[in-house]
Amino acid sequence: MKPFLSLVAVLALGAAAASSAQPLPKGTALKPPADAGAQPDVPVELMKQITKRLAADDFEGRAPSTPVEPKVLDYIVAQFKAAGLQPGNKGEWLQPVPTVEITGDKYTPLTVTGAGKALSFKPATDYVAASYRVTPKTQVKDSELVFVGYGINAPELGWNDYAGIDMKGKTAVILVNDPDYADEGEQGLFKGRRMTYYGRWTYKFEEAARQGATAALIVHDTFPAAYGWNVVNSSWTGAQYYVQSPNDGMDQTVANGWVQKPVAEAILKAAGKDLAALTKAAQTKGFKAVPLGLKVGFGFDNAIRRSTSNNVVGVLPGKTRPDEVVLYSAHWDHLGHCTADKTGDDICNGAVDNADGVAAMTAIAKMNAEAGAAERSQVFVALTLEESGLLGSEYYAANPIYPLDHTVGGVNMDALLPAGRAKSYTQTGGDKSELGDFYRKALTARGLTDVPEDHPERGGYYRSDHFSLAKRGVPMFNIERSNDLVEGGTAAGEKIAQAYTDDHYHAPSDQYSDAWDWSGITQDVELLYDLGRELADGSMWPNWRQGDEFRAIRDKACTAATKGCNTK
């Protein structure tokens, strides 16, 4: 899971094409959930049972592609069956997810030539790098360096940092985050302090590849990155995991990496440039990429291991429009054996992260089965390899069992924090799609309020499984239970959340306890059931807001679709 404190619950909503997008009609409202009998009871005991079992020591922390995986999958399938689901992958319960693990070794220094004395920078200390290509050796040699600002190509905003330059054979030097990250509000072209997808490092590497670059190097800066070099170092100096592609990643750059800010400053100084001055220039629309007149070289070996894990897929077929789908998801995997604690316990059980998410999803499946078939089909997916970089959801989104242009929306559950009921919720990522209207009406119906997201500059919206669908155009928004609890207020909620982060997150102590307070998780399930069921019984196809970075992708897909989100 992404390292945030409380519930990560996601609603993904389908959209109409630009020519047929249908805004929510005025007065659209959810069915009042407070009516007696309007919603089946939340099966709290079932959630306790599933969480306790998935977090048991004999499941060894649920590491994917290990000998324990079949036992974990058998248990989840049994629970899906008991909840009333049918096999969701053409009569099968499993969707195999082929992955490749690449571990770099024998890194050479990163050398820069072309301005007198060559510069040399140490691996791990000064730079980190990896390759998306499945090849035993990676070598970048005499590649021309080009400063490309923030490395953004956003046609809908009239912004292209690569305009007028051919990047073939060249290495892009890229700034982290997006151009107006330093603004206090959210009024800038790139939403000011709130990070957009264009600010994420994953986007920058993907765009560099689309531009034909040989390599891409992001300049690390702690404030706009929202984490220190230690996080970059630890994340990029071990095994890297990717979904296997038919061409073994050969359409990607030869190498991607990061350099420390002082390293970038030294390189630009050697080119007769100033990083601060170029950074300021890059924040202005119309910025042009700057060739540095220098060449870079570095390399490393790759140890390669291929493996296969599995998503678990169940379905409740729809009554009248079974080809239209509402998607529910939660990742089943965790870290397996990890660094031992003082007692010698080295099993990261992952009770909160994310055994209780799978339990909540199964509870929602059971509630929907008890309520009877909805108009649309409801698909429930227990995803693998979230902890390895959202790979289970990435594979599903790239190889959808149910077409994305027929996917109306869904709910993702990741790390539901055991705590009391909250007074409010927040939208991670902001009000990105028209489904925000449904969210606010659902809160009002339950006497809850909407509050602003904490730390929008961290880009939390782009760090959980729903994002794999969003970047392919399926409108999604992310809601979190706030720390403002009914009993104890914000002080109590923040104490519980901080204790989880400090003492239990990705640690052997993330274990199930009979003493857990399930009332907050129950509140989450009640709200998510309402929202998902409304989509499943409705006929709406909400879209992204105008100007959102994912709107054009969805519009294009829906224009080409047969029915589904192209329904007028």
What does this structure look like?
With 568 residues, this protein is of the alpha+beta class. It folds into two domains: 8-100 and 306-546, 3-Layer(aba) Sandwich (Aminopeptidase); 101-303, 3-Layer(bba) Sandwich (Glucose Oxidase, domain 1). It is built from 14 helices and 22 strands. It has helices at residues 44-54, 69-83, 201-210, 222-225, 229-236, 261-270, 275-282, 351-371, 391-398, 435-445, 466-470, 489-503, 519-537, 551-560; strands at 8-13, 86-87, 94-105, 110-113, 119-121, 127-130, 137-147, 153-154, 159-160, 170-175, 215-220, 239-243, 255-260, 290-316, 321-331, 336-337, 347-348, 376-383, 407-414, 424-428, 449-450, 476-481. α1 (44-54) runs antiparallel to α8, α2 packs parallel to α8 (351-371) and α8 (351-371) packs across α13. The longest helix is centred in the middle third of the chain and has 21 residues, at 351-371. The radius of gyration is 24 Å and the shape is globular.
Keyphrases for this structure?
568 residues, alpha+beta, Glucose Oxidase, domain 1, 18-stranded mixed sheet, two-stranded antiparallel ribbon, 14 helices, 22 strands, globular
